[in-house]
Structures are given as C-alpha cells and as structure tokens.
Design brief:
The protein is of the alpha+beta class and 70 residues long. It has three helices and two strands; from the N terminus they run βαβαα. The radius of gyration is 12 Å and the shape is globular. The relative contact order is 0.20. The mean pLDDT is 87.
Amino acid sequence: LPQNQTIILSDQTPDFEQLKATGFRARGYITPSQHDKLVKAIRAVHDGEAWLPRRLVADMLNHFAAGDLG
C-alpha cells in the first residue's frame, strides 16, 4: 500500500544498494546503536520524515547527482 511506511531494523549500517533494493520505499533504518531511538524514528517517519544515517543520505545524493539510479 502506498501509504505504508517502512522502518528497517538492521545489524549493520545500510548502504545505497540496500536502500535501492527496497525500491527507495524504506523511510527509516535503525542500526544497533540507535535501538534506543526507535520511538523517535517511528514518530519521524509517521510525520513524513526519513530516519536515515547521514552517510547513507550523502551516498544517495552522490548517486542521484551522478545519474546512477539503476
């Protein structure tokens, strides 16, 4: 369903390929060091925001700028 939002609990830091594999539908990634922030992440995603590691956002922007989306 388009209105569903996905938060992935991961044991490793996600990368661009993992995000791409979700069809760019994952709106949040929680790593082990952030488990205590799960409620904040859920609220952020529910409010229409993304909860992504900064490194992943930078990597994603680099791919988009290079036109490397496929």
